[in-house]
Design a protein that fits this description.
alpha+beta; 2 domains; three-stranded antiparallel β-sheet; two-stranded antiparallel sheet; 27% strand
Length: 158
């Protein structure tokens, strides 16, 4: 693995709550996001969808990595993630819990070292483990004059 060069995304507003997300340093197409009505037009996934997609995708890739590490050639998997929003003590919407179900195309009995795979695959998942441990986030707002305002630093659970 190479040293981490950082992950950079650039969001540009396209509508009331719609954004175009560019993945800097890649040849990937931009992703278009939007909040559902009544705020936005629902023209793309919203941040909650992206968060859940990141968790489910990372867990899926990590399971495949762990299976292949032990020389397995797994068939296609299917992953489903379900979460429900709930209001916290301050009345703000949060996602307190998500349930992930990964369906294998193969019998566990036919997979090499399956118990070891299960014991370790989640540790390979950067996204899920980061969400579980918490991420410190520093927020700055810069006005049209270039003046920067630090609105707060949240400290993760790590």
């Amino acid at each position: 693995m190479s040293e981490d060069a950082g992950i950079r995304l650039v969001l540009e507003q396209e509508g009331p709550y719609a954004f175009r997300i560019r993945f800097e340093g890649t040849d990937l197409e931009a992703l278009h996001t939007d909040e559902p009505p009544p705020l936005g037009g629902g023209a793309g996934p919203n941040p909650s969808h992206l968060l859940l997609a990141g968790v489910a995708n990372c867990l899926s890739a990590s399971l495949l990595f762990a299976l292949r590490k032990f020389k397995n050639a797994p068939g296609p998997i299917r992953t489903e993630i379900v979460a429900h929003k709930a209001r916290n003590e301050a009345g703000r919407w949060r996602i307190p819990r998500a349930e992930v179900t990964i369906r294998l195309a193969d019998s566990a009995a036919k997979l090499e070292h399956f118990e070891r795979v299960l014991a370790q695959f989640e540790q390979f998942c950067i996204v899920t483990q980061s969400v579980r441990e918490g991420i410190d986030v520093e927020v700055r707002v810069i006005d049209a004059e270039g003046q920067a305002f630090v609105t707060g630093i949240s400290e993760g659970a790590a």
